[in-house]
Each structure stands twice: as C-alpha cells, then as structure tokens.
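We modelled each protein-ligand pair independently. The example shown here corresponds to the guanosine-5'-triphosphate entry; the chain sequence is given first, followed by the ligand as SMILES.
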Amino acid sequence: MGVLEKIKEIEEEMARTQKNKATEYHLGLLKAKLAKYRTQLLEPASKGPKGEGFEVQKFGNARVCMIGFPSVGKSTLLSSITETESLAAAYEFTTLTCIPGVINYNDTKIQLLDLPGIIEGAADGRGRGRQVIAVAKASDLVLMVLDAQKSEEHKAKLTYELEKVGIRLNQERPDITVTINKTGGVKLISTCQLTRIDEKQVKNIFSEYKIHNATILCRQDVTIDDIIDSIEGNRKYVRCLYVYNKIDTISIEEVDMIARQPNNVVISCHQKLNFDYLLEKIWENLGLVRIYTKRKGQPPDLGDPLILTHGRNGCTIKSAVEQIHRDLIKDFAHATVWGKSAKFMPQKVGLNHILCDEDVIQIYKKAKTSTKAKESNKLVSITEKKDVKKEAKDMKDQKAKDKKK
Ligand SMILES: Nc1nc2c(ncn2[C@@H]2O[C@H](COP(=O)(O)OP(=O)(O)OP(=O)(O)O)[C@@H](O)[C@H]2O)c(=O)[nH]1
C-alpha cells in the first residue's frame, strides 16, 4: 500500500472515531501516524530528478507569498501593488507558474510571489508541490487572498491544506523542549498544569516514533498536536494576513463585519480600495525596522536605510553594526542614537541597545594607535629609560664625589 493510501485510510478512521476520553489515546496515535506519513511524502527523495532542489531566488529585504483559490484576484493584486518583474523571471513549477513582483514601500523592497496551485496536490507531494511548499516555507509572511463572497469556506480549506504541509498560521511555536536520553524512559515534566495531555498519551506518541527515553519539558498547557509538532521539528510558524478581495460585490455591513476580525484586510482591486492599509499591515507584520546612519558632523543619510528584522528580542545596535560590515563589530566602541529608542538625544549606547523604526545612529570606532605612533611611543620610552639611567649614574657619581670630599 502506498503512503497516500495509508494517509487516506487513517483520515477515514479518524473521521469514524468518536471523540471522547476513551478514544483520545487512539486518536493521538492516529495523529502521530498521519504526521509521519505526511512528512515522508514531503521529504525530498534522496535521488530525485535533476532540478528538484530548484528554488525561487530571494530578492529584497523580505518575501511575502500569496496563496488562494483560482480567480480570487491574485494576479490583479500583484499587478496593482507591485512592479511586476518580467515574464522571463517567472518560475515554472511544471504546470504552475510563479511570477514574482516587488513592492517598494518605506524605502524597502519586498518580494511578492503568487504561488498558484499550493492546494492542488502540494500536500500529497504530487508534481512540483514540494517546491511550492519549500517556497511558501521560506516566506516571511503569507497573504491568503480570499473572495469576499465565499471567504469562510475557502479560508478553512486553505488553512487545513497548509497545516497538512507543516505551515502554522498566526500561531506561536509551542514552548516544549524534548531531550533524548539514553535511559530512564519517557518523562513528562511541566512548569504549569497540563489539562489536555497526560504522560501515558505522550509515551504512546513517543513509542510510535520509536523513542523510548526522553524528557519532555512543557512550559505551557500544550495539546497532543503540539507534542507531535515538536517531535517532527519541521514546522514553520508564519504570520498570515487574510486579504478579502472584491468587497465591491458585497454590502457595506458585510464588509464591516469582515474588517473587524483580527488579521483581516478588506480590499477591492477593481476600485483600488484600501491598498494603503494593506501595505501598512504587510509592513507591520513583517516586523521590519529602518535605521538611518549618520557620519560625524554630517546630516543623516535618509535615502538608504539599513533594513533590519524586529526579531523576538528586538533589533539591536549589534545587528545594525553587523549589517554594515561583519568586521566592524571588532572595532566598535559605542554608538549615539537619535529617535524613538533614545531616552535623550543623542544617547550614547552599547551593542545591546534596542532600536526603533526610523532611528538614526552614529557609530564610533575604538581609537586605533597607528604604527607610527607606536614607534614614537617606543622611542619615547627608550629615551625615557636612557634618561633615567643617566640620572641614576649622575647621582651615583655625585655621591662618590661628596664622599671623597
Ligand atoms: N468585482 C471584482 N472583480 C475582481 C476584483 N479583482 C479581480 N477581479 C476579477 O476577478 C477575476 C480573476 O482575477 P485574477 O486576478 O485573474 O485572479 P487570480 O486569483 O490570479 O486567478 P488565477 O490566475 O486563476 O489563479 C478577473 O475577472 C478580475 O477582473 C475586484 O476587486 N472586484
């Protein structure tokens, strides 16, 4: 039996099984089996045909990918908000073509990709589905483009398809640490109360993966799906904006209702409605930060900012210095900052200072002693030594003379 049939069989069994306390161990095991088979499908074959590793070339400061059902208006949106690259730059996924565009926003270049066909067979590893998924996984943000008339059903379907290939939208990575041991069995420990899983269930899942000795530390009330995700380890947690297009075809009340939901943006490509807000939201969700640099005694260079990512710990002077030049960090002495992150202006700061968007920085290097200065220092010290010796000799002679007298 092929992997696809096995997956189908498990899915059918899961649909048949009632969800209750008695069946939850069995359902957990089925979920683990399903995850294993899906990973098998998506893992690259060891000796695939030539060109299998093919990827869309990254461009700009960030990558955003659009997914959606046919005819929701992805191509129209792409041509409306980007400078679309020539058709020659289109990427072929056998029957699918991906045309990249570039959004120029806030002095930043953002690559926008239309990933058609992510739904068609991608999760089954059919065609070049694997490559499409690889591109989606390498994105910094997903735009799920939906038709405002049939949105909810499409949204659920797409989210499910992405879940199947290990892409988790708008979710935080569960705080679970798995340590594989040599002995001691499977131990579940937690820093909070676990209401949704128990040790027996977790042991079952681990034995399905043939892991018999491990410590699982949970720092939050996790589910069995989170445990499976942390064993699989290949999940991508990515931000997603739900872009509802064609709002010109629905009533204002409906538009209002959709727009109030979190992560939703309503637009109309035909009437060019709300593009500014969409771009603003894209920028916000990418977590990009613009830092302007300044030379001593000169105004800041406002034309060409450093574009940094606002990571988990914020964006620091260190990341800015490293982006200017890798070796600059060795010579870094301190920096001065103007802008939202500075308590007063300018503020003298070190490498760990956290920067805000549109801050201006000036970097000071450690004072370097040139070789010439070093040599003259050497000379000075040598002459100094000579002088001291001479002085001591003179004093000795003087004393000897005094004694004679
Ligand atoms: N009413 C309305 N129609 C729109 C809007 N945007 C796009 N359309 C129409 O929707 C149809 C599909 O648009 P496309 O941009 O080709 O859609 P797509 O998602 O790229 O479709 P595929 O290329 O098949 O994946 C076209 O007839 C567009 O004119 C909109 O804002 N309002």
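Residues 68, 70-76, 116, 245-246, 248-249, 268-270 surround guanosine-5'-triphosphate (CB under 6 Å).
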